[in-house]
Amino acid sequence: MSKEMLNALDALEAEKGISKEIVIEALEAALVSAYKRHYGQAQNVEVEFNQKKGDIHVYAVKEVTEEVMDSQLEVSLKEAIKINPAYEIGDKIRFEVTPKDFGRIAAQTAKQVILQRVREAERTIIYNEFSAYEKDIMQGIVERQDNRYIYVNLGKIEAVLSKQDQMPNEFYQPHDRIKVYVSRVENTSKGPQVFVSRSHPDLLRRLFEQEVPEVYDGTVEIVSIAREAGDRSKVAVRSDDPNIDPVGTCVGPKGQRVQAIVNELKGENMDIVEWDEDPAIYIANALNPAEAQDVIFDLDNPRACTVVVPDYQLSLAIGKRGQNARLAAKLTGYKIDIKAESDMEEFYAKLEEGDYIDEGEFVTEETVDENAIDSVDEVIENSDMTSDDYENIAFDEEKED
């Protein structure tokens, strides 16, 4: 057994990277428990594994006392001196108490400890490996499914794809090869668990990094993604290099680059728009394929705006079930209200009449009146005039007219 044990420990260290010392330490602790189970005594027992010979010895540790009260825990000074004259009261002496059949118990215990350590080591290795892939993309093979998950084989582990992470237009069959986004990796009591997604917006980001070298090296940056998985997505891109067209780069020659992504996502429509530091231009771009004529921001809510489009493009700008406007709002972070040009004639008329405030923002007549009142009060407050004086002046001006 001794040679087999040493060979097993050496192989374990070489193949699994599990330290021999850690296994021996765990083995000795397990053997103490095994001794207690079989022989009913363990409070003063030590187990020692000889790393050179592979032998296992059990020792009972006893304290030297003047008078022995418990022979299992104590030894008299008289008996201790017979062993070694140097012993004194309070010293600890180890007596070997290795049972004749302890080799069989040790072998069983060693097997259990080694298997447990191997499982723990493999779990740690797998967890560390897949933690490195967290927030990244991997290719897997669909294996099976139940009421909760689709199970995807990633090689060393089965990842789980929940219903909310599946694409509604996609049907998964065993042996299908799919690319998945590793959303999170957890180290549970049952071992590592990997959660993957096909609907996560960052799956789109990683696919662009795979298909577009300029996105991978940072020459073209994906600023924002708005996605309704399986149906339609909008991607805002930019580049600091004036010689690079970020949209054209992502689309690729004859649309080859974006088409590869569309094919991977089973026909999901893709709008690639250019980001702009001017929010009005960015919002107009985000409503692609509709063409915006004007973008008017709300003074009361700086993250809200009204976009004016030609009458014939109103339905295109809003999109089926409001999808185009909804995705544009997600992409830009603005609340977007879309109006047809004909509905804005009154608005533009007021602009021409001068009923507007800073940044060309139109206001109602009530707002103008309120602003006028506030201005009058401010003038009176900052002068020596009273409100009666101001009314007299206004009355005199009316008489002159």
From TrEMBL:
<dbReference type="InterPro" id="IPR013735">
    <property type="entry name" value="TF_NusA_N"/>
</dbReference>
<dbReference type="Pfam" id="PF08529">
    <property type="entry name" value="NusA_N"/>
</dbReference>
<feature type="domain" description="K Homology">
    <location>
        <begin position="301"/>
        <end position="381"/>
    </location>
</feature>
<keyword id="KW-0889">Transcription antitermination</keyword>
<keyword id="KW-0963">Cytoplasm</keyword>
<dbReference type="GO" id="GO:0031564">
    <property type="term" value="P:transcription antitermination"/>
</dbReference>
<dbReference type="InterPro" id="IPR058582">
    <property type="entry name" value="KH_NusA_2nd"/>
</dbReference>
<dbReference type="InterPro" id="IPR009019">
    <property type="entry name" value="KH_sf_prok-type"/>
</dbReference>
<dbReference type="InterPro" id="IPR030842">
    <property type="entry name" value="TF_NusA_bacterial"/>
</dbReference>
<comment type="subunit">
    <text>Monomer. Binds directly to the core enzyme of the DNA-dependent RNA polymerase and to nascent RNA.</text>
</comment>
<dbReference type="InterPro" id="IPR015946">
    <property type="entry name" value="KH_dom-like_a/b"/>
</dbReference>
<feature type="domain" description="K Homology">
    <location>
        <begin position="229"/>
        <end position="292"/>
    </location>
</feature>
<dbReference type="GO" id="GO:0003723">
    <property type="term" value="F:RNA binding"/>
</dbReference>
<comment type="function">
    <text>Participates in both transcription termination and antitermination.</text>
</comment>
<keyword id="KW-0804">Transcription</keyword>
<keyword id="KW-0694">RNA-binding</keyword>
<keyword id="KW-0648">Protein biosynthesis</keyword>
<dbReference type="InterPro" id="IPR003029">
    <property type="entry name" value="S1_domain"/>
</dbReference>
<dbReference type="InterPro" id="IPR036555">
    <property type="entry name" value="NusA_N_sf"/>
</dbReference>
<dbReference type="InterPro" id="IPR004087">
    <property type="entry name" value="KH_dom"/>
</dbReference>
<dbReference type="Pfam" id="PF00575">
    <property type="entry name" value="S1"/>
</dbReference>
<keyword id="KW-0251">Elongation factor</keyword>
<dbReference type="Pfam" id="PF13184">
    <property type="entry name" value="KH_NusA_1st"/>
</dbReference>
<dbReference type="InterPro" id="IPR012340">
    <property type="entry name" value="NA-bd_OB-fold"/>
</dbReference>
<dbReference type="GO" id="GO:0003746">
    <property type="term" value="F:translation elongation factor activity"/>
</dbReference>
<dbReference type="InterPro" id="IPR025249">
    <property type="entry name" value="TF_NusA_KH_1st"/>
</dbReference>
<dbReference type="InterPro" id="IPR010213">
    <property type="entry name" value="TF_NusA"/>
</dbReference>
<dbReference type="Pfam" id="PF26594">
    <property type="entry name" value="KH_NusA_2nd"/>
</dbReference>
<dbReference type="GO" id="GO:0006353">
    <property type="term" value="P:DNA-templated transcription termination"/>
</dbReference>
<keyword id="KW-0805">Transcription regulation</keyword>
<keyword id="KW-0806">Transcription termination</keyword>
<comment type="similarity">
    <text>Belongs to the NusA family.</text>
</comment>
<protein>
    <recommendedName>
        <fullName>Transcription termination/antitermination protein NusA</fullName>
    </recommendedName>
</protein>
<feature type="domain" description="S1 motif">
    <location>
        <begin position="133"/>
        <end position="199"/>
    </location>
</feature>
<dbReference type="GO" id="GO:0003700">
    <property type="term" value="F:DNA-binding transcription factor activity"/>
</dbReference>
<dbReference type="GO" id="GO:0005829">
    <property type="term" value="C:cytosol"/>
</dbReference>
